[in-house]
Amino acid sequence: MPEITYVVPDGTSHVVDVPVGQSVMDGSVRNNLPGIVAECGGSCSCATCHVHVDEQFAASFGEITDEERDLLEYAEDVCDRSRLSCQLVVTAGCDGARVTVPDSNG
Ligand code: FES
Predict the structure, then answer these.
(1) Which of 18, 78, 80, 106 is most open to solvent, judged by the fewest CB atoms within 10 Å of its CB?
(2) CA 102 to CA 99: how far, in whole Å?
(3) Which residue blocks in 6-100 are alpha helix, DSSP H?
(4) Count helices and strands in the chain by DSSP H and E runs
(5) How far apart are CA 102 and CA 22, in angstroms?
(6) Is there a contact between 40 and 84 (Cβ–Cβ < 8 Å)?
(7) CA 59, CA 61: separation in Å to the nearest integer?
(8) What pLDDT score was predicted for residue 58?
(9) For the CA of 71, the nearest atom of ligand 1
(10) Ligand 1 center from residue 95 Cα (angstroms)
(11) Ligand 1 cavity residues, CB under 6 Å
């Protein structure tokens, strides 16, 4: 199962096995990690699942959609590595990926 590392707002790292087909948001919520609130439950309408994806893993996930890009305008601490973690579907190629939950989510 792909391992995803989450760096949460208190600075600690958590390595989680996330099944292929689940989202990076699912992996966080199912393991009760702090930071990713996921208010809308993954339907790309709340932006409380915002993360920064480490550059070398950005291409491991699907392309950003216009809907996701529009919603990110409402998030804080947005950068060019910003994604909504509910839209990051885990594949075998995501093994070892690292995402950082911005402080503003904490
Ligand atoms: S969980 Fe709401 S946009 Fe991702």
Answers:
(1) 80
(2) 9
(3) 24-30, 66-72
(4) 2, 5
(5) 21
(6) no
(7) 5
(8) 94
(9) 3
(10) 22
(11) 25, 38-40, 42, 44-49, 84, 86
Radius of gyration of the chain (CA): 12
Give 54-64 pLDDT, tens digit per residue: 999 999 999 99
Task: Give the 3-state secondary structure of residue 99.
Answer: strand
Tell me the CA–centroid distance for residue 96 and ligand 1, in Å.
23
Choose which residue among 36, 37, 48 to substitute to test ligand 1 binding: the one with the highest number of ligand atoms within 8 A of its C-beta.
48
Distance of alpha carbon 88 from alpha carbon 83, whole angstroms: 8
CA 94–ligand 1 middle distance (angstroms): 20
Domains of the chain: 3-101 (3.10.20.30)
- AA identity, residue 15: V
pLDDT at 35 over 70: yes
Which atom of ligand 1 approaches the CA of 84 most closely? 4
CB of 13 closer than 8 Å to CB of 75: no
